[in-house]
Fold each of these.
Amino acid sequence: MLIKSLELKSFRNYENLSVAFTEGTNILFGDNAQGKTNILEAVYVSGTTKSHKGSKDRDMIQFEKEESHIRTLVEKNEQEFQIDVHLKKNRSKGIAVNRIPIKKASSLFGILNIVFFSPEDLNIIKNGPSQRRRFLDLELCQLDKIYLSDLANYNKILNQRNKLLKDIVFRRELLDTLSVWDMQLVEYGQRIICRRSAFLEELGEIVYNIHKNISGNREELILTYEPNTSAEQFETELAAAREKDLKYCQTSVGPHRDDLLFQIGDADIRKFGSQGQQRTSALSLKMSEIQMVKKLIHDTPVLLLDDVLSELDSSRQNYLLASIHDIQTIITCTGLDEFVKNRFRIDRVFEVRNGQVELK
Ligand SMILES: Nc1ncnc2c1ncn2[C@@H]1O[C@H](COP(=O)(O)OP(=O)(O)O)[C@@H](O)[C@H]1O
Ligand SMILES: [Mg+2]
């Protein structure tokens, strides 16, 4: 798939913007705070309806404006799709594909798959489990409509259950209703656990090979799913934890407590890896994400690299750049030196300055 163009109206620091991207590598360069990441964010919203950094719709609308428009032209299998996203300050957003409004975010699925890579992703191994779950969920939600809806339902029920646990403190009679929530939590939770497990098994194989390559055959990276409970045990364990949950007013068992385990040799590198191992493994993980998407959608995703190259040493830069030659990439950076240095093929270059983008 290919993003042909992006138009913005009152989005972040862009009053009006129109850019035409090309196949291959597109570079956006410019000083800090000029609007480079904002462009990638708008692209991400077009593909997923959400900001990559979790910003609220109203925060993406230009200061002092009421609404904002993003129009993206995508080419996929020789077909064109125009995705229009209309962000509104106090109401939910409107989305249209080829001018036909869609009701559910999931109708957008499969038109524009995005892999977003930012410097924070390099900390995914050393940071807490919630970041690793977020990685898993963001990817699975782009690839699997059923997962998206199961996860939304699970989170909704989890919140309601937690609220109920608090209410029971004051109204003991509500205890009878708890099992109704438990039943639903288990139902959705089991589906989430099974999907995560299957996905990570496949991803684990890819990560292993990529990491072996990046590390020059020196390291074997093993990624495994570390579920808080299994699909089979969830119901029993949830029941067994009921007293504890009532005491602490929160749900202590379930996939909302899952994690991913990364091992090199016998060492759990989340805790015992060197900084270098953790960052290289994170790079391997992001690169396997690209492979995994390719495999599942039988097409290439669009890769967004936000200021990430300057974080990598030159051999890792080379590895990354060499392995993305066949997919459309939009790269942001502050200078062009790193590309000149690596004599990397660049297809289009833009300079971003204070909410204006100029083709170079
Ligand atoms: N809602 C908004 N309205 C107007 N400007 C915004 C909004 N949100 C962020 N900005 C501005 O966008 C700029 C940051 O853009 P960003 O894309 O993060 O820069 P960079 O080029 O460093 O990636 C800042 O100047 C910030 O004030
Ligand atoms: Mg930025």
Note: The chain has a mean pLDDT of 94.
Amino acid sequence: MRVPPSAIVAEGLRKRYGGTEALAGIDLEVPAGTVHGLLGPNGAGKTTVVRILTTLVRPDGGRAEVAGHDVAREAARVRARIGLVGQNAAVDEVLSGRQNLVMFGRLYGLDARAARLRADGLLDRFRLTGTGGTPAGKYSGGMRRRLDLAASMILAPPVLFLDEPTTGLDPRSRAEVWDEVRALARGGTTVLLTTQYLEEADRLAEGISVIDHGRVIATGTPEALKSRAGGDRVDVVVRDAARLDEAAAIVARAAGVHAAVDRDALSAGAPVTDRVGALTEAVRALDEAGIAVADIGLRRPTLDEVFLRLTGAGPGEPAAAGTAEVPA
Ligand SMILES: Nc1ncnc2c1ncn2[C@@H]1O[C@H](COP(=O)(O)OP(=O)(O)OP(=O)(O)O)[C@@H](O)[C@H]1O
Ligand SMILES: [Mg+2]
């Protein structure tokens, strides 16, 4: 089989639903064997991208290749090489996890014996072996999502699409799903996952495309996106609000003359280039001035701050021009 240089390539994808421009020209490139995050608020167009790349919906414009095949002209070839975990799970609630996996295996054309073998292998891999005859409807959220992942891996597809795999899960279940996604990527699977959680993209993805109103508004590594939000910062929290002005002046000097100091009730912070130099200088000068400090540290911006910087609005808030908001 030909090994494509990129597992997913999309160019200028457009899609309109009535008066709504769901996608206004999306470009994507995902190297094989990596995890890529499609990050955006409700209604950004994430699911529409996934539907086009998984051949469920035809784009109005643009083109895309998945696993080396064109999604429009070679849809069957694409389908044979992908797995999809949709936003709404497809497992049967009455059947046990094993029965679900055997059923999916049969649907994909495995004979009964091969389907059972595959099911048992996947139960083991996704740590669901002990669930016995428990109906999937009684699983915890994390177990359910692991079963969804297992079902999508029946054919061990080289490219896997996960649409908001951890939405609604508690932190522990979310961490379990993250572990499984990492394990799949280590095994060579290319993963495109959509998420509204900045932290999730940051933790899992090697590359991130931030999308808003059907457009890619930024793309890069989590680290690169964070540096676009202003790079590292020194932040100081003082114990006594009366000393905040002095502390802010010290932070400004430590950060460099042109630094913009942000402040609120008890804290002052500024972007810095010489991280350690600025921190050391701030600690020294605060100490010399006798200012009691509750906290001081170097901080990388969060992806929330990246989003704010890129769109002028928080995730989910309407940006300047726009399509209709989707109710949560
Ligand atoms: N089948 C459809 N018919 C009409 N409009 C649609 C349809 N599917 C999507 N849209 C619209 O297209 C836009 C993008 O929707 P999409 O579902 O791709 O967003 P999303 O980023 O997945 O959002 P969410 O985070 O809520 O899942 C929205 O304005 C949505 O209302
Ligand atoms: Mg969606």
Note: The chain has a mean pLDDT of 87.
